[in-house]
Amino acid sequence: MSNRKNIFQFLFSVYQTEAAARTYKQYRITKKPDEADPHVYFQIAGKNLTLHALPEEIMHSDILLGFSKADIAIITHLGTKTELEKKYAEKKQTLLARIVQQIFGKSGKTKFMVKLPEQDKLVEAVPEEVMTNKEALGMFESHEAAMIGYAAAENRMLEIRRQTGAAPTCKILQHDLLSNQITYLDEEREAKHTSSLKDIFYNKKLLSLFTKLDQQIISFAAGQEYQKSITSPHHYEYSIVNQSTNSFIFKNKAGEEREISFVEVAFNENLLMQFSPREQHIIRFVAGELHSKQLDPQQPTLKINKQTGDMIEYVDLEGNVTEARILDIAFNRNILEQFSLSDRELIAFAAGESHGKRTLHKPISLKMLAHSEGIIDYQDLEGNIFKASCLDVAVNKELLSQFSDDDRDVIRFTAGEMHQNRINPKKAIQLKLITYVGNSIAEYENESGERIKKPFIELAFEANLLDCFSQTDRDLIRFVAGELSKEKENLIRGKF
Fold first, then answer.
1. Contacts of 14 (CB under 8 A, 6+ apart)
2. 269-286 pLDDT, tens per residue?
3. Which residues, in sequence order, are CB contacts of 393 under 8 Å at separation 6+?
């Protein structure tokens, strides 16, 4: 240490005494630090002498002024980086408090079991109390502090909903990930029900009866199912070939054709889901019109003659020809009901197209062809094909506005996933939860296809094993383990 001190004194004396050195820089870096050697090697100008020192030592010494601006920037960057790494390492070694378990109380509120520094026992922590104590909140790492803040907000919302009479009365008992069916318990009526994710998600009144965690699980899974439907346009089993007043002809992938009524398909959910979303909309619309016609049958008195742009020309029974805007007819129910079913369908579709063109800031001039791993291929009106990152397109509003609504949804969703992965990189998913029921055993599958059964509480406490599941599976495992812990706690309290 004394030798190094003498070196710095010598260098500073050279800097002070040599007047000629004022016209140029006295030192220059010859070698930067690496993994093997953290020192900076530098040479004295005009002398065959090379010295070395740590970047942070040079940064806090007066000899720093003897380097060029570029070398000063390098030394300052390296020195600051080293000091911050040491400071972070020291802070990490101070044994911060950490969350061991997340539990759900009888009222549905979230609590945490916390392990404090240098203590073996676990302490129960209420999120609202931790959030009001900045010193206590600072003992947790950033992601756990965020978890506590989120739980405090959820508890507050639960309390508000309870005060207004909107407390959750439904909870998930079983979620079959292969068929996307959910079995849930209606505690108010003490009845079990099984329904598809989509039906629960689109029923906002039913969805609001679940806890916030269950709502997130349902919304996430329904969103995944929707993304598959819009990004895989060629996986539908059936497609409409031709249609008449009460029925239509459809064919399967093998090319076999069959005729069936609109109403029969509309009430057969499994068959209806084999068509594309657009054809499902047509089937439901025509079936609804046929049902209305059965309730109030009437003969059409108007007939479409021709359509030009946003205008339509129609003729009545006496042969009088009238021209009007499609949107005006679509919003005039008295006139619309005088057309036949097929004409009404055409008017409704054309009115939707016309309204869509009005609401768009710019016409659709770009079309997404494919996307893979965050990169999309898209085509302009002239047929030119381009490649771009979803993140770049999502932040470029002018470019994004030239895509259709469906393409924009896909781009925004993919960009959000990419951004989330950058902030919080995901580990490779090695295990997949197959099913769970209202007992204490979970069944999951590894990469080789082997199915394994294990108690939920053990899974929730094995961090290394839990990290091999997807985020959705981890949430499910923690939720069920918390419910089991709550039931066990209630049983123990009942005995005493």
1. 21, 26, 44
2. 778 888 887 788 788 888
3. 376, 399, 400, 411, 415
How many other CB atoms sit within 10 Å of the CB of residue 460? Answer: 23
DSSP summary character for residue 339: B
- Let me know how long the chain is: 496
The CA distance from 34 to 54, in Å, is 12
DSSP letter at 309 equals T
Q: How many Cα atoms within 13 Å fall on the side-chain side of residue 31?
A: 13
Looking at 340-354, 359-373, 444-458, which range is the least confident one?
359-373
Give the bridge partners for 8, in sequence order: none
DSSP annotation string for 255-298: --EEEEEHHHHHT-HHHHTTS-HHHHHHHHHHHHHHHHHHHS--
108 Cβ partners below 8 Å, 6+ apart? Answer: 158, 167, 168, 211
DSSP state of 239: E
Instruction: Please tell me the predicted confidence (pLDDT) of residue 294.
Output: 60
CB 51 within 8 A of CB 45: no
Rounded Cα distance, 27 and 44, in Å: 5
Confidence label for 361 from pLDDT (cuts 50, 70 and 90): very low
Rounded Cα gap, residues 487 and 125, in angstroms? 19
Q: How confident is the model at residue 36 (pLDDT cuts 50, 70, 90)?
A: confident
The answer to whether the beta carbons of residues 67 and 76 sit under 8 Å apart is: no
Q: What is the pTM of this model?
A: 0.25
pLDDT band at residue 223 under the 50/70/90 scheme: confident
Can you tell me whether residue 115 is helix, strand or coil? strand
List residues bridging with 171 in a β-sheet.
185
